[in-house]
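Re: How this chain folds, sequence and tokenised backbone to follow
How to read it: Take the token row as a discrete description of the fold.
Start of record: The labelled sequence and token lines come straight after this line.
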Amino acid sequence: MSKISPPHIGRLPAGPADSIADVPGVTVGHCTLNYGAIQTGVTVVRPHGGDLFRQKVPAAAVTFNGFGKSVGLMQVEELGVLETPIALTNTFAVGAVAIAQTRAAVADNPGIGRSLPSVNPLVFECNDGYLNDMQAFAVEEQHYRQALDNASGTVVQGAVGAGRGMSCFDLKGGIGSASRKVAIGSAEYTVGALVLANFGKLPDLVVDGERLGKTLKCLQKRFDEPEKGSIIMLIATDAPLDARQLRRLAGRAGVGLARTGSVYGHGSGDIALAFSTAQTVPHMADAASPALHFSCLHDNLLDPFFYAVADSTEQAILNALFAAEAVKGRDGHQRRSLSDLLEILATMEHA
């Protein structure tokens, strides 16, 4: 049977690849660990191909529900910039990946922590412990380096990288991405989203306004466990925006998340981060002038970007669900894919 595709969300057009890599300069890489009880990995998002410690990008984050163990958010909140690639992984791997990020930055800039300030690694996590044996601490520094080396403009989605062991709406979740084009006068900009989807209960699933979970729940057996998942939502744009405006964009990712049926459950860590590639912030030692000169769009022009963030976030979550295949992992635990359930449902309807 041919693969089922998700519906297009909203009125705005998608970019050529319908992924976060439609934003010029943004690349994504995965390292996937897939053997027996080990179902996990690392995903890396690079805002540009240069040295982020030397050429930082404006960024801001919003925490919708703070049940999470991320590293680096405090400094992003304070300074409004990124100075390493963004890493996604499982909860118990945050420390190893943060060390790997720091080592990579030091390798490029040996003065870090000596003649230069320290670096701020940025690692987000979700708990993949249902499918993955997190106590094995399988993710190591080398896996971050592999994901970084694999970064490209082709964004593989589904049960890959950090998304390998993730669950979404009691089904197989993982990595999803999407993009939307925004026209402001004669200028065209791109908004891209990438999610690590690991949240929700099947009866709550909504697909493009349809409460599909109510229909599909008859094909699953249990929904009595509390939600223990999370979602990380990354938003990129090539529009010239400052950290304050990017925080406003990050807040609209919650609109897309809510549309899919999430209520940000007690045990779910729901975090969004937005960054702009339009301008970079040079490290102080590299600045030609003590004064920084930046342009940014007028706030009155932001509404189309809010639509683009909401639609691309919702689309990315659906893309993760539709792209992910079924996975069996720790102690025989398994997650079926949304596509499998839709095929079963179609067979029942035509019987």
In short: Residues 27 and 262 are 28 Å apart (CA to CA).
